[in-house]
Amino acid sequence: MKESRPALRYAKAILNLAKEQGVDEAVNNDMKLIIDTIAGSDDLEVMLKSPVIKASDKKKVLDALFGNKVNNIAKGLFNLLAENKRMLMLNQVAKQYSIIYDYYKNMQVATVTTAVELSSELEAKIQQKVIEITGNSATINNIVNPEIIGGFILRVGDVQYDASISNQFNELRREFDNSHYIPKI
C-alpha cells in the first residue's frame, strides 16, 4: 500500500505530540473512534476517498461528525490532512497510530477464535497465558467461528496455538492417510 509509509510518519508525529501533552491514551481512544466510525459508514469512507469532493468539505464533515467527541490533536490531524490534500489517509493514519501506541505501551493484540463467545473468567485465563508466554499483557480480540467445533485458536503476534477440535480431526485424518497399516479402499 503506497500510503502506508506516509501514514506511519503522520502517526509517529501525532504520537510524539500526544506524549508531550500527556494525552496519548485519549488520542488513542479518538483514533479507535475514527476507525470504528469509518468502518461503520460506507458513505463516510466513499466521501473520504472521493477525488471530486474538496478537502475543505471533507474537513467540515469530519468536524461536524466528531465535533466535541475528539481531542484537539485529532482535530489538528483533520486540518493537516486537509491542507496536504491527504484526507483519504485518515483511516490508515488512525490504524497506524493504534499500532505504534500499542507497541509504545508494550501491548499486544491476542486474537482468540472460539466456537462460542468467551466468558470473562476464560478471558482472564487467556490473559494470564499470554503474559506467561510473551511477558506482556494483551488486548483480547474474540472471534466466534462455529466451524472450529470446539476448543480455541490463540494468535499473539506471529505465534499461533491451535487447540481446536477441527484441527485435531485434520491431524487424525492426515495420520490415517499416511498410515501404512491400513489398506486404502
TrEMBL record:
GO molecular function: proton-transporting ATP synthase activity, rotational mechanism
Presence of keyword Phosphoprotein: no
Annotated Gene3D superfamilies: N-terminal domain of the delta subunit of the F1F0-ATP synthase
Topology class, membrane: Peripheral membrane protein
Subcellular location: Cell membrane; Membrane
Parts forming coiled coils: none
Role this protein plays: This protein is part of the stalk that links CF(0) to CF(1). It either transmits conformational changes from CF(0) to CF(1) or is implicated in proton conduction. F(1)F(0) ATP synthase produces ATP from ADP in the presence of a proton or sodium gradient. F-type ATPases consist of two structural domains, F(1) containing the extramembraneous catalytic core and F(0) containing the membrane proton channel, linked together by a central stalk and a peripheral stalk. During catalysis, ATP synthesis in the catalytic domain of F(1) is coupled via a rotary mechanism of the central stalk subunits to proton translocation.
Entry similarity comment: Belongs to the ATPase delta chain family.
Name of the protein this chain belongs to: ATP synthase subunit delta
Source organism of this protein record: Tenacibaculum skagerrakense
